[in-house]
Amino acid sequence: MNEIPRISFKKLKDNNLDAFKNLSEALRFHGFFSIYDHQIQKDHIAQCYSKSQEFFKLDLDIKNKYAFPEIGGARGYTPFGKETALGEDVPDLKEFWHHGPVLDNFFDHRVYDNIQIKEVDDFNSVFDQLFNDLNNLGSDLLSFIAISINLNKSYFNSWVNRGNSLLRMIHYPPSDNDNIFRAREHSDINLITLLIGANEKGLEVKNKDNSWIQITAQKNDIVCNIGDMLQLVTDGKLKSTPHRVVKYLDDIPSSRYSIPFFLHPSPDTVLKSIYDSNDKGVIAHDFLDERLKAIKLY
Length: 298
Known about the structure:
Elements: E1 6-8, H1 9-13, H2 17-29, E2 32-36, H3 42-56, H4 60-64, E3 76-78, E4 95-99, H5 123-148, H6 157-160, E5 166-172, E6 181-186, E7 192-196, E8 203-206, E9 212-214, E10 222-226, H7 228-233, E11 243-246, E12 256-263, E13 270-271, E14 282-283, H8 284-294
Parallel strand pairs: 1-2
Antiparallel strand pairs: 2-10, 3-4, 4-5, 5-12, 6-11, 7-10, 7-12, 8-9, 8-11, 13-14
C-alpha cells in the first residue's frame, strides 16, 4: 500500500460495490484516498487559487488588518509562523486565511461570520461558492463512510447540518533547505478533510511502517482524509493519519498554495463512541478549542 486509492465519486453515488470496496480499503489502510468525477468545476477551482494568490500578495500591513488572534484565527488572516503542529516547537512555514459558511439564525452562536475583503474583487462570493460545493461533497462522502462501517447513511447528517466547517487558503512562501518542513507532521482535528489542487508535490502521508508516501493526485482530483474527531467516535476503527508538507532538497525555492476544506460538526455536537453506549463523549466545541490552543492559535 504505497499509494492512496483513487475512487469515483459518481460510482459511490451509484452504490457501485467495487467503489465501496476501494473506500473501505482506503479507510482501513491509510485513512487517505482521492476522488474524481466529483463535478466541482475545474475553472472555479482555478479561480479560487487565483484569488488566494492575489490576497497573499497584498502588503503585510493590509493582511494584518484581517487578523483576529482573539478568536484563534477562526476567520480571516493568520500570519506566517503562527501555527505550530501538536507537540512541535518550530512553527509551520505558512500563512493562511479562514472562511466559513454564510450564517443564518439557526447556526450555533459559536460559529463566526466571515470577514469581508475589499482589496480583492469577488473574493467572498468566489469562496462562498467553493465552501458550499465542498460542504455538500463532504456531507455526501461522510454518508458513504457511514455506510462503509455499517451505519445508517444519514447517521452523521445532524452533526454536520449547519456545522462549524472551515475553508482554509494556505500560502507557503519560498523556503531554503535549512528547514524543509513547510507543515510538520500532524493530523487533522475535524471529521474529514477535502483538499483541492493536490497535484503539486510536497504532501506526504505516513504509512503504517512509518515510511512516508508522496501524494501525487491527478490534477482535478480531490484528496480526502479522516480527522481526529472521526477517529475518536469510531474508537480508532477509522484512522486519522499523520501527514506533512515538505520542500524537497532539489526543488527550486518557490511559493506553494493549498486549499483544504475541513468538515466539522456543529459546536454543540456530542462526540461520543458510536459503539459504546456508556461513553459520555466530549462537546465538539471543547474538543476543537483545546486543540486550537495546543497548536498555538490562541
